[in-house]
């Protein structure tokens, strides 16, 4: 028995997936923000639950999407995440280390932030650099092979 080649997802599928995840994220993120106003451990748990549910949904959608793409698309994403994500992480880390190691480089406003704010800001900055590196590497992978 011969296997039929996978038919790629259409634009409508991608728009529905992204739109659906945006709606789920907005609803559950808003819920986390409202419920997280409760004090103490109770508020922490109430804000954790909707965020956790959102991530589980995103995980299942990601698995569904991964199973629906062909081998070339998988290779492009793996290559882009390895090289682009790693390069972006390294570049972001160099930038953050350089900026925080030198007095007077960062604006005064950043010195008034809490340690938690700075840690989350650093994590999000590294993630941003990883995603930008990934996007550049992914585009380069496809342009090189077209």
Structure write-up:
This protein has 146 residues and is mainly α. It is built from five helices and no strands. α1 (11-35) runs antiparallel to α2 (40-68) and α3 (71-101) runs antiparallel to α5 (115-145). The longest helix is centred in the middle third of the chain and has 31 residues, at 71-101. The chain starts with 10 loop residues before the first helix and ends with a helix.
Summarize this entry quickly.
The chain is mainly alpha-helical and 146 residues long.
Provide keyphrases for this structure.
146 residues, mainly alpha, 5 helices
Give the proportion of residues in helices.
over 70%
* Average predicted confidence as pLDDT: 85
With helices defined by DSSP (H or I, 4 residues minimum), what is the helix count?
Answer: 5
Which outline best applies?
flat
Q: Please state the CA-atom Rg, rounded to the nearest Å.
A: 20 Å
Tally of extended strands? 0
How far apart the termini lie comes to: 31 Å
The proportion of residues in beta strands is under 5%
How are the secondary structure elements laid out?
Elements: H1 11-35, H2 40-68, H3 71-101, H4 108-111, H5 115-145
Helix pairs in contact: 1-2, 3-5
């Amino acid at each position: 028995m011969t296997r039929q080649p996978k038919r790629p997802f259409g634009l409508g599928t991608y728009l529905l997936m992204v739109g659906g995840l945006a709606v789920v994220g907005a609803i559950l993120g808003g819920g986390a923000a409202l419920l997280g106003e409760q004090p103490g451990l109770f508020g922490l748990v109430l804000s954790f639950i909707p965020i956790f549910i959102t991530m589980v949904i995103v995980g299942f959608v990601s698995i569904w999407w991964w199973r629906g793409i062909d081998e070339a698309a998988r290779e492009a994403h793996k290559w882009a995440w390895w090289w682009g994500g790693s390069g972006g992480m390294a570049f972001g880390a160099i930038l953050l280390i350089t900026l925080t190691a030198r007095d007077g480089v960062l604006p005064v406003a950043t010195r008034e932030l809490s340690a938690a704010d700075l840690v989350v800001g650093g994590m999000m900055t590294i993630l941003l650099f990883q995603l930008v590196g990934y996007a550049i590497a992914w585009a380069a992978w496809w342009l090189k092979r077209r």
